[in-house]
Amino acid sequence: MSSNFQNASETLSKMRSACVVAAASAFVVALTVGCSTKNYVRSQTAPIIQQTNELDAKTAADHRAITDTDERAQKGISDAMTAANTADQHAQAAGQSADAASKSAQDAYNRVDNLSSVVANLDNYKTVSDVTVTFGFDKSNLTSSDRSQLDALADSLAATKGYILAVTGGTDTIGDANYNYALSQRRADAVVQYLASKYNIPPHKFYLIGIGKDVQVATDRTAAGRAKNRRVEIKVLSNMNQDQAPATASVAQPAVPQQ
């Protein structure tokens, strides 16, 4: 009986030891598997984390570069606009100064309604020479032929004493009356500005008259007649005795009248 009990105890002891060994083995296996899994996960995620970090760094760098470029661009645009505004202001100021100077020069010329009112208020002025220049339809610019005739007139002024210049602008009958008055004034201005600027004739010597289509020198029924009416007449008047005989310069008509 005692022997059987001893055998049972030894068997139980062996079974207990086997269980302990089995549990220990299972724990070791589990631990080993867990470590392997962590290492695998770590090996797989490490490159992804590194790429993510690199991407974040590149994104931040690109953002800084874009921000810096945008700031420089905005500053460049602002500087360019400031420079353009400054240049525009200078140009406007220069233009205003030029306009003011031109207006002052034009205002200095004597402007009257008709030649009779000029002569009536001056002492015994008589015509000593005259010339007529013509213009194209709706034009107020001088041609080379016009300038040649005005040059010849200006050359004669050196020998003329106490003179004034009566400058009368005219138009044909085509168009609005008020527009033609303004056009006749522009034509007279063109003549005056040419003579004044090239020959230094003082403004007080000029008497400008814009008669529009009120006074015609030829019929407007023909092209040739209308060409003659698109004119500026320049009369040299003097209240002094002249040594030379009065001279009259005639206008050279174009072979084909302008329409």
Please render the helix and strand layout as text.
Layout: H1 2-108, E1 110-112, H2 115-120, E2 126-134, H3 144-156, E3 163-170, H4 177-199, E4 206-212, H5 223-229, E5 231-238
Parallel strand pairs: 1-4, 3-4
Antiparallel strand pairs: 2-5, 3-5
Comma- or semicolon-separated keywords:
259 residues, alpha/beta, 60s Ribosomal Protein L30, Chain: A, 2 domains, five-stranded mixed beta sheet, 60% helix, disordered C terminus
Measured by DSSP, the beta-strand proportion falls in 5-15%
CATH topology title of the largest domain: 60s Ribosomal Protein L30, Chain: A
Give the helix/strand class.
Answer: alpha/beta
Low-confidence stretches: 100-105, 244-259
CATH class of the largest domain: Alpha Beta
Main sheet: which strands, in order across? 1-4-3-5-2
Large-scale geometry: rod-shaped
* Secondary structure: helix percent: 55-70%
How many separate structural domains?
Answer: 2
Radius of gyration: 53 Å
Based on DSSP secondary structure assignment, what is the total number of beta strands? 5
CATH architecture of the largest domain: 2-Layer Sandwich
- CATH H-level name of the largest domain... which superfamily? OmpA-like domain
Report the total helices.
5
The major β-sheet equals: 5 strands, mixed
H/E order of the elements?
A: HEHEHEHEHE
Distance between the termini: 156 Å
What do the pLDDT scores average to?
Answer: 74
